Each structure stands twice: as structure tokens, then as C-alpha cells.
Amino acid sequence: MNHKPMEEARIGVYVCHCGTNIAKTVDVAEVARWVGEQENVVVARDYKFMCSSLGQDLIESDIKERGLTRIVVAACSPHMHEKTFRGACQRAGLNPYMFEMANIREHDSWATDDRAAATQKAKALVEGAVRRVAHHTPLEPLPVEINPNTLVVGGGIAGITTALELANAGYHVYLVEREPSIGGHMAQLDKTFPTLDCSACILTPKMVEVGQHPNITLLSYSEVEKVEGYIGNFTITVRKKARYINEELCTGCGICEEKCPKRVVDHVFEAGLGYRKVVYRPFPQAVPKYPVIDRENCTYFLRGKCRACQIFCPTKAIDFEQEDEIITFQVGNIVLATGYDLFDARRIPQYGYGRLANVFTSMEFERMVNAAGPTGGKIVLRDGVTEPKSVAIIHCVGSRDKNYHEYCSKVCCMYSLKFAHLVHERLPDAEVYNFYIDIRAPGKGYEEFYHRLLHEGTHFIRGRVAEVTDAARQPGEEGKLIVQVEDTLIGKQRRIPVDMVILSAGLEARHDSREVSQLFKMGCDFDGFFVERHPKLDPVATMTEGIFIAGCAQGPKDIPDTVAQGAAAAARVAGLIHLGTVMMEPVRAYIHEELCSGCRICNTLCPYNAIVFHEDRQVSEVITALCQGCGTCVAACPSGVISGAHFTNEQIMSQIEGVLWDVRRNGNGKQPTVNIQQSTANVQQPTVNEP
Amino acid sequence: MTESFEPVIVGFLCNWCSYRAADLAGTARIHYAPNMRPIRVMCSGRVDPQFVLKALREGADGVMIAGCHPGECHYVNGNIKTLRRYHLLKRMLKQLGVEEERVQLVWASASEGKQLAEAVDRMTEQLRALGPLRWPERVLGEDGRGANGHEAFVSAIEPREEVAA
Amino acid sequence: MNALTRASRASPQTFMQEVVAATPGGDTHLELCLQCGTCGGSCPSGRDMEHTPRQLFAMIAAGMRDEVLKSNTPWYCVSCYYCMVRCPQEIHITDIMYTLKRMAIKEGYYQESTAADAPDFSETFIDFVENYGRSFELGLATRYHLKHHPLSAIKMAGFGLGMLARGRMDLRPTKIQNIDQLQAILTKAKELSNGSFEPGGAS
Amino acid sequence: MKYGYYPGCSLEKNARAYHESALVVAKRLGIEFEETPDWNCCGATEYFAINALAGYALVGRNLALAARQKLNGQGNQLVAPCSACFLNLSKTDHYMAESPELAEKVNSALAAGGLSYEPGSVRVRHLLDVIVDDIGYMTVAEQVRKPLYGLRVAPYYGCLVVRPDYQHIHDEPEYPLCMDGLLKVLGAEVVDYPVKTHCCGGHMTQISEETALEMIRRLLKSAADYRADVIVTLCPMCQLNLDAYQEQVNKHFGADYHIPVLYFTQLMGLAFGASPKEVGIGKEFVDARPALAKIQEEPPQNAKQKRSRPPKGALPMPSMLSHHKGGGQ
């Protein structure tokens, strides 16, 4: 099984310096010189920046002038520049799949300081690519039509923005929201920083627009259950949960809610600070306007009695018999805007939330200061009447802490400043303390807002709070909550007695984000946030074609950033719809029918059911449109008659031989005496100089 | 600088998770042993046991197969199939007298650059301790016909023309 | 093992590397200090320390060797581990305090600190352990107090009588049977740690 | 169930009451202890300050001896009732596993005495954890003969059993509830003691009396503020500091605290029907008898009443996270 390269292979190899990114660690000139001596290699060069237009010109002119039939570029990760160089090949008239990339930056020069070992590894990677490319065959990308409808998951400000952008551009959108109303977290807020505009005033018109838009199908109180297909052709199955309200008949008059005799603590919209009825709309401006019966708490469902809502409903819209509805539809693209969960402050017991009555979370405080909230906007202690004379606001609760979340939640500093302002505004005599590690105020008008709070007389104490306790030590502490902290600017431990403590809880990924990412077959990082295609250059696309992300589902961010990302995702989707078709990588499996034994092992292995068995001919066949190119069937075929385009056995076997050039017993390499010195000292600081 | 044995590891990295984990390790400038030479496959499920045997036969001292975590496969469950194959392969290699540590299956998501780098470091350490594989001597025996009385077995996985070469 | 730990173990160059190298048990994460003050805020004896642990870490990073080793801070550490479990960067603070104590003793710095007696308490304690295999409260209290606080020794005498009266203190130390074995182990351990403060240090 | 038993120096002497009551309780609960032969001191908080490797070797000898005990075929479990002993034993085992370098050096030292220790071969347990986790509240409840009705107790855990919790056995290092649950099973009224995991000062009484007395005062004040009759502890050092120094605290701060400090095993023994003498009552400096006299035959009236409803107009109170503990076998 010695894989002889095809006769006509004339290979050009280009070793990139990437400035000093590669050249500093890998002896690029030596690699180019050495590979020039290898079989089938006609041209071998090293060059400062291969991805530059001059670098690409080099490839193009060599193809034309030297009659190259295959190209290898040793540079960065193919995820960075494979497309770039394929383009160069194509412009020179070479099929773009006659190209292979060797990753000697991310996988080599950046991963070690040892020049000798890095150079040796670079040679191995380049030789692997050279041997592989010799077996490449011309391939054509597969065109796929794009269905112009789009699914948007999540009806917070991110999803609302995406849906409206697309709908206003004339495209149809299915907006799926889990809760009874759209609006998301933004609907819970009172004021928004730093301009202090009223959150509801700017959000509710957009919610209404969504509810009335002819291009938007709003599926609230619904969840996506199944996602099938691929870019251009997704089939979506949604469960529309029973509201027990006939939407045709309901006018949204609210009488049912008024008459319902039972109330429960509202842990969602009111963040646990207030109550709601069992038949309820989360808030008066809810979109859609229809209420929902909370089956778990409803007296009728629990004991078969009551029916107060049904008795009083003027339009007979209450329907206890209603069942969940399963809806299926087709879309071409998907935008996930599923938002965030607030960090559960009870996980840090030393801050006392759940034990000490007057410790509140930030979301509780948002509801408290909201004029439509449980206290009508009055700032009071848990007893509902006493106004606090002193308030402590603790930053970084659950954020910037390896025990919980290592990342900075980005919005807490600013909303904590906003809270301080609101306390000053409503309780002018109250003392306000902000306990912070660093004040992070990067944004338009943000730093200025911080200065405004300094002016308003907020006490800023730099130190992460150690604990909040009711254990008084000194006379002044009796009956108070004591915030114990190191004032790091003084270098002394301080104990500040206050009446009220607000915990500025961080943002975390939705508790079920992992399941959601699996449902949509896309990536989720360690913290549970969805992974973008590129952190800088492609922040709304994902690794999965046709699936985009927006808002806090991707990572903590404030409203302006969320809106920008929602609109960006819409623009990306609109671009694809406008294009009508996309080209897909032709990495697909193919069964050589004449050799197929009909054992059917591959049939059950395929996760996409893309392999059908023809009873008449007793052979299996891959449906190209369904195949995603994973290659599992290729590896499993006992007769070895399934080939995976661009990942054939010959290609991989040759690559194995190549990467082992120096240790092969049959190969041209001598037994190596590689001295790899584990570098220890002088660990480099990461530098930001990616091209 | 010490004159010590440096193992060569062939790494089969899945395009969606582990390959990107290795990219991330580089981007984050996490330094780790340069002994692993990665080969990209679309899914760890594409790793044919033949590839592993080929690599060991061609002089690698170990093979690392790296894929997405179970339940996070880009292709639904390709990695589960890898896992099953891996266990069968391990059993076979054990019979041939190849130490367990030489073929390892690792899960690394795209965000786990550090974990992947640590896995490479760990495996490199283990193989340094084990020493070179020396497939011909160990598996084929002096006469190239199988060292442990596995002639038939060996001939099945070891194509004849190669043995002769 | 992280880069700092690796570099420190190989050949400590900075004061921070020295401290890391002398602290056993995996990565100390000392280099990750955010200066947030969780340690200083949590410390039950923090009010009597000359420097909060946080300040000490900044001083270590700044290479202020003399000031760090003269500080009373490590000697006021009560090993309650509050700082260590609360530290958002998972720094092994308590272990680092032990390291600083060892370094201060070795270099004689502690005599200048306001907790100059503390090392002697530890040494008196382990002296009994090394000779008998068990601790001996009466002996410890008598020897330590007579040496350092002769006045309070009188007060302590009452305390000791109370302990004796309640059967909570013995007049003679208990000796383990195989004291030779223990002494051989400890001698060997000290020999192994020679030249460094800790296992796995510079060698 | 058979466990190795490492009493430690304190239980031999000043915490004799802990030792005696632990044995009484163990017997009633069917726990069998086999003392590790010829154990030595764990070094408390002192040895690591002088020589770290010798400190680990000192503890290593105990682990090596415990590993040799070979108890009823099960993986050896070693119970240490003293917090400092518990921490030092589990810390040494943990760090030896974390750092092969440390393990190698400790073993070279142990070899000088003909011993060796493989990290992980002994599972170090604290007595409280054994009673709550292995035995369980149900079994404890079955043994209660004289419930502690009417006795208000402040459960005091101190530091080293709950922190740093190398083995992740504790429900919550900041606000543990397992001993609270145990004391409730005994019929006592458990106060929500806010400083339950604060430090008693350890050896600070010997280094800086001023610092130490203040730390002890805080604990006594909080117990008094919560009107506790007894502070219940699981650590000899905590018991000694709070009990033996209480008089000094009173003198120093002009206070008047009289709060007896008992081991949880002493209260368990009493509830199981043992005599005060059997469980070492009388060895404490602050006499426990007046407090124990408050124990009633019947549960107090107020405990039977339902929790009073919050006043009208009050905002809902969030719940605490619950960690299930005390399931038993």
C-alpha cells in the first residue's frame, strides 16, 4: 500500500514567515530549502506574508509560468486562510481543491520556543501536506438553495431587533419565545444606563411592531423541539405550549387575571420580588396580549375546582382542554438570541442572600425601582415599608471569580452606578456605598456617568467584599447588615454597617444552553455561551453554516451591543437570502456501487440517514444532499468501498507517511536524534500581531 | 539540553473541536511538547483503525485521537462511534503487546486549548518513560513474521509488500 | 504545572519565583493576584497585621524581599483558610504564609517583626514532637512562657492548674513506642529539604 | 462498619471529653474504631512553619501506619475527630496526589523508617461526616432516648473541617448545615449562628493575646446575641479557646459571658441517654450543668407553632439553596 503520487503532480510549496510569528521559531528558509528537494516539488519558496496580495500573486504566477498542478502553503490555520489561497489557485485556473495547507503557526511556532524542534515539526507537517496534495482530485462545490424564511429563537431585544430588521427588509420570520410574552430581560428594567431613558418606553413600541408585523409569525410560549437539515433547508419543529386560552376569542381584557383567587411568587418577571396570579400576563404591555394559565399552580388543574376565570371570561376564551400544538415549518437560516440567566446569588453564601432579609439581587432591585413593580418604585426593605438610610452595592457577584465565573460580566459596573444614582434620586439622605474591584466604564458616555456619580456623593470603596453578616461586633453595628471588606486603597479592613445590600449579580449562559447548542448542532464554550466563528472578524456567525447568534447568548453584553449584534445577524441572513444559493464544501461520501457488498453497516451509522439501501440491487447509496461529510461510514465500511471526497484513504495514508518522514523505517529519513529542549524560563507574553 | 528519547505522536484531530482547540492553544501561546504532529479529519469518526496501525507501523511512538466531547459531536454522535472502535482497537493492540498509553482518545472542545495542550504534554511524558515503540521488533519479530505468535493476525494488518520492503 | 511554577522550580530568579518554588503542592497561582482584597477583607486577624495578605502579594511582585520577610503578617495568620477558599483566583494563600514563615526564620528576619516570639512557639512545639512523637501542652506552655512572657507565665499557671484539676493536662509527656523510626524519618526529610525550604525546590 | 481511629494528642489530654463521648456515641451507632497503632502528632499548625517536608513526612508516617491497618477488607478509612489532625492528614494525602514530586520525597523520608505511603490509599474522614453521611440522621434519631428539648444550641464548625475541604465532602464551606441537622434530630433548638465557620484564633492565644481574645469575644458575643445556651463544637482547639479563655475575655472586655462549650458527641451521648459523667461533662471550665438543666421533657410550645406569616405588604423572601445531607447508608 505504498501510495504512489500521480504522475502529473507538479507541486509548489510556499512557506510563510507571517512577519516574525512563524519565522521567529521556525527556520522557514531551511524548511523551504529542504522541501524543495522532496519528490514532486517543483517550486519551494519562503515569503514574508503569503496572505498578502503579493504572496498570492507569487502562487498565481508560479501556477501559470511553472505549470504547477498542486499547491501547498505552510502558514497559519486553514480556518484562517484556506479560502484565501483556494481563491488564488482558482484565479490562476487551478481547481481550488488542488490545494493543501500546513498549519505551522498555531500548531507549531506559537506552541513552543524550541527552534530545532519547531523546525523539525514544520518539516513533518509540510511533508504531510505535500504527500497528501499529490492525491487531491479536482472537486466542485455543491450549490444549495436558500429558503427565504428565517427562524429567530428568543424574543428579547436581540431577537426583536433581528426579526424586525429582516421583516422590514421583506423577509418572513418565525420568532419563537419560551415565555408567554416577548421583551426578555429588557422589559424588566426600569432605566437604562447611561442616558437613563425608561426601558419600557423604548422597548414596548418595538414589541408592538413585532406583534403586528405581517412578516413575523410570533410563536410565544413555545419551544423549538427539533431541527433537521442544513443551511438553506432547515425543517423546524416547534411545540406551542397550551395557554388554556383560545386566542381567537381572547380580547386581552384581563378580567380572568382580576378574578383569579390565587397568587404565587413570580420568579421570572418579578425576579421573586412580587406576586402574580395563576392566570397571568407577565406585565400589562405583554405581546401577545393573551394570558397563560400556570397549570402547575392552578386550583382547577390541581383539585378540579374553581374555574373562576372561566366563569367570568366575557368571551368564553378559557379552554381547560387545550393541548400543546406541534408546528413544523421550513427556514433557510436560524438566528439564536436566547439571552442569559442571572447568576444565582445564593451560591455565594457569605453574601447572605436567602438568609438575610435585606440582601437583594440586582434584578430584584430593578423591579423595586420600576414604577410598575411590586413596590410602585419605592425603595424599601423586605418589610415593604422601611426606607433604608444606607445602601451597599456589591460589584462582581459571581463574576471575575474562578470559583464561579472567571469572566467579567461587562454590565454590572454600569448598572451598579445606575442603582447608586436611583437611590440618590429617590432617597436623597441615604448613604450609598459601591464596593468594586475595578470600575469598568468603556462606552459612549459611560465614564462620564461614573464621574457624575462621584459628584453625587456615592462612596466608592475599592475592594471585593469578603462577607455580609448580621453578627455585630461593635455597638454601631447592632441590627444592621455589616459589609466586611478590605479597603484596598487604604490597606485596612473595614466594616460598614448598612440597612440594605444589593448584589450586582453577573450574567451567565442560559442553564440549558448546552442542550440548545446540541439541538442546533453548534458550539458552546466552557461557560455555556455560544461560540462565534471568529471572535473578532465574524462575531455573529457560527461554525455551523446557516446558524447565527446575537445578544448575550454569545457572551455578556449591554443593550447597545446586543442591538448592534441583532442587526448584524439580520444583515448576514439577508445577504444569504439575497444571494439565493450558497456553495457548500464538496466533502461528501460516495459509495462505489459496483463494489458494495450490501452489508448495510453504513446505513445505521449515518447520523443524517443519508444512506439508503436499494433492495433491488442490494447496494447502498449516499444521498449527497443529506450527507454532511463526517466520514464515519468511510471508516466503517468493511469492504473499503466508500470514499470520502477530500478525505480519501489515499490522502490520509499519504499524509501519515509524510508527517513521519523522519522516523519511517522504510522512508527516506534517517533515525532522528531530535533534541527537544523543554523551554522553561522566559515565557513569552502573548502578543497581538495576527495579520 | 539532555540527550533523551523524544517520542513522535501522530494526532488525528477533528475539524470542529480538537483541531480548533489546537488552534486556540497556539493563539493563546500555550506552550506544550512539540512531539505531536496533527492530521485534520472532519470527525474523529473518520479515524479508521487502519490509520492508527499505519502510523505505528511507519514509526510513530504513539497516536492521539482527539474529538468533541460525547454529546457535543458536530455530526451528532460520530465520536461515540470512535469510542467504540477505540476500545476494540485497544484490545487488539494489547494482544500485540503494545502498551495502553500509546494510543489515546482525548476529548477537547474548541475552547479547551489548555486541556489539549496538557493532554499532549501528559502523553509525551508517558511515552518518554515507555521509550520507543519499535514496531518491527515488537510486533513483527526478528524475522518479520510476528513476535508473539500472531503470524496470521499480523499478516492481516501488515500488508506483505511492506514487510518485504 | 503552569509556566511560573515550572520556571520557579528550575531556577528561581525573582523573589516571586523563589516563594513559588518554596511552596509545595501544585500551582500556587500567586502570579494571578488581582489585588481585589478578598483575602484582607476575610482575614479574622487582618486588623492586627502590618500588611494585608493582598499588600504582601503586591510587595512580593515588586521584589520587596526585606519588607515582606520582616512583616508580621505571616505570623498573624491563624490558618483558617478563609482567604484561600474565597480567593477568586484560587491562590494558595495559607500555604504561601507558611512559606514566608520558613523563609523569615531561615534568614533571621522574624526577629525584627512584631511577632518575634511566634517562631519560637512553633519551634518549642515541634521540639516536643521530635523527642516524644506527641505534643506536650504543659511543657510547651511552661518553656515558651517562661522564656518570652515571664509575667504572663504566672497568669498561665492558674490556667494550667485549672487544666490539671479537670484532668485535661498531664504532668509528663507521652512517648510513642517507635520514636527511633519517627526520628529517622524526620532526619531524612530535613536532609532532603536541605538547600531549599521545601520538597521539589531548587536542586 | 470498621474505621481506623486517629485520636490525636488533644483527645488524649485536654479533649478527653471528646474522646470519651465519641466512643460512647460510636458504640451506640454501631461504629467500630480501631486505633492506628503508635501514631504520632500531626504537627498541628506549627510544623509547616518550620520545615514543610518534615511536616509532610510527620503526617505521612501516620498515613502509612493507617494504610497498614487492613480493616475488614474495605478501603481503609481513617477517622480523625480533631479538626487540625483531619486537615493535616487529608492535606498531606491530597498534596502527595497532586504533586508526584512531593510524594516521592515524602516516601524517601518514610523509607528511612521502613515505611511508604501511596496517596489515595487511606480515605481521611472527620467524625461528623461519618455520622451524618455514613450513619445518617434516621439511625441517629432511632437512638435518641432523652431529646434535648428546649436547649438552644449554637452550632460552631470552626475552620478546618469545612475549609479548604480538599475532598469536597462538605455541603457548603461557608454555611454548612450538616451539624445543624444533626442537633435538630437530637431535639435541640438550633440557632442560625452567623459566625458558625469563623475562626477561634487557633494558636493566636500564644502569639498575641489581644488578637486572640478579640476573636474569641466575637464568637461568644454572637452566641449571646442569638441567646444560645450552649456552643456546640467539633474541634478541641475551638473548645479550649472558647471555654478556657472565656473568663479572660470577660475580664479583658468587661463582659459577662457564661456559655458552656460542648462537643457535639457529648450532646449526642446525652440525648442517647448516657450519663453526663460518661460523656465527660464536668471537664469544661464554664460549667455546662445550668444550661443542661434547661432541657425539658416535652418539646417547647413555640416550636410546635407554625412559622408566623410575614406582615402584610412585605416582599417575598428568597429561599436558601438546599444541600441534601444526612441520607445515611
What does this structure look like?
The complex is a heterotetramer of chains A (691), B (165), C (203) and D (329). Chain A has 691 residues and is α/β, with parallel strands linked by helices. Chain A has four domains: 144 residues, Rossmann fold; 230 residues, FAD/NAD(P)-binding domain (3-Layer(bba) Sandwich); 166 residues, FAD/NAD(P)-binding domain; 56 residues, 2-Layer Sandwich (Alpha-Beta Plaits). In chain A, 27% of the residues lie in helices and 22% in strands. A five-stranded parallel β-sheet of chain A has the order 10-7-6-18-29, covered by helices on one side. In chain A, strands 20-27-21-22-23 form a five-stranded parallel β-sheet. In chain A, strands 2-1-3-4 form a four-stranded parallel β-sheet, with helices on both faces. Chain A is globular and about 90 Å long. Chain C is an all-alpha fold. Chain C has two domains: 112 residues, Fumarate Reductase Iron-sulfur Protein, Chain B, domain 2 (Orthogonal Bundle); 73 residues, no CATH class. Chain C has twelve helices and no strands. Chain D has 329 residues and is of the alpha/beta class. Chain D has 15 helices and eight strands. Chains in contact: A-B, A-C, A-D, C-D.
Question: What can be said about this structure in brief?
Answer:
Helices cover 44% and strands 14% of the residues of chain B. Chain B has a 4-stranded parallel β-sheet, with helices on both faces. Chain B is of the alpha/beta class and 165 residues long.
